[in-house]
Amino acid sequence: MIIDNNESKSLPLGLGKGIYYIQVTSNKGTTYADPYEISITDDADPHLEIEPNNTPLYATPISKDYSRKGRLYSERDQDWYGFYLSKQARFDIYFSSVSTHGDYEISIYDNNKKKLKEKISIDAAPVNIWSYQNPGVYYVRVTKFMDADDTKHDLDTDAFYTLNVTSVDETILIDGNNTLVCLTISLPKDSMAIGESMHVSVNGHYSDASMMEIKGASLFVLPFQAGEDVISVGQNQYIKGLVSGYASILASFKGLTARKTVLVGNPDQGSSNMNNRHGNLILVAGGGVDNHNILKSATQYLSNHVYSSFLGRFFSHDDIYYFNPIDWHDIDGDGMYDKIVDNVNPTVSEFAKSITGWAQSQRSDGPLYIYLIDHGGIDSFQLYTNENLAADSFKDYLDIFQSQTGRPVVVMIEACKSGSFVDNLKTDAYDRVVVTSTDENDGYIHLNGNISFTQFFSDYLFEGNSIEGAYEKAFKKLKRMEVHILL
């Protein structure tokens, strides 16, 4: 939003749960000293879109004859709206805007994210787009219109548009599709005495910016101390402090999780240093991203899938060190950049430092998990273009780490000939497990990684299976499917 001298403007905006910042700059440089005033007030307009609504998961609910107002704030912004059609019928989408020069694309998608129809609005001309569909969830997406010659098309970032969904059949029910997008945990306070009990509130946050307490969430505790429980979980979502220390309260509901750290007693007196028991993960999306790497798309998908699986098993972002040559990722599905990549330079030396440096410095007594995904050869894994990790060198890094920390190590490799690593990495000196997607032959992958060892193995780990159990189930599932697509 551009504001001229001595001008006042307001910007209505609907926002979901989160932390937001306001940036004010001057086109006259940083030495421009005239003061300005800025204020934030509650907006009474319930029809505003709820940002960020950049993906179907976070789509703003829209219902029959209940209009929504939105605004595209940048070239990359896209606004999604969701609704539920109660029975087979025709529905109509009406688009209009106060802009005089903005160019828009309005599209309808089904619940599988398949585009059904689209229309273009040039110079913000009103648009009516309709479709006849079966019952189910549908989405409307509004974006800037772009074609091969995008220089001819404009984006009006100041102008609001209006969106309506309706039906010629007045008996048709079209309700807003309100999605649960995340959980948070609320406690009366962040610390408690030994023997004290507190109620844990698990809050669900929805795509319409509403919040509701979740009664059926499962609660778990991750103690930071080795050898003793700091907190116990009782009935009706109550927790009780047992000994001095730190613990994480974990909530799980419909595939979503939340985590909150609680201090019990005085952990500086009579308790061990703050540790975690679940461990750490080093994740490598290898191979590079040039056109010669035919696995780059599958590697990106599987690497992010593994990352999400470990998050779902109560790891935090700080517990994971992620090598990926692509920096931009949206791991939570809100369409926004998530800063999850720690290193975009997967070289052998940087990989070695992640084990003997980063992992060794972590305050954990849990396992160190290492997951490598991409091309492999006999006793070799391609970290990046012209950066190949040798099995013997890998063993040296693990030996150094385990001799200094005494922590268990679990190595998992999705690559051709990955089984050749086993005889190099195995040892009787340390607690070490090596899991590979194949033996010394080629591995196999299909559907961009959706049918692969890592897909099934990580899914079974997420369900709570042991390493051995997840491996056996993944192996049997691949064998039943008789996958023959070369990795």
TrEMBL record:
This is Uncharacterized protein. InterPro entries: Peptidase_C13 (IPR001096). GO terms for molecular function: peptidase activity. Gene3D superfamilies: 2.60.120.380, 3.40.50.1460. It comes from the Bacteria. One of its GO terms (biological process) is proteolysis. It comes from Candidatus Magnetoglobus multicellularis str. Araruama.
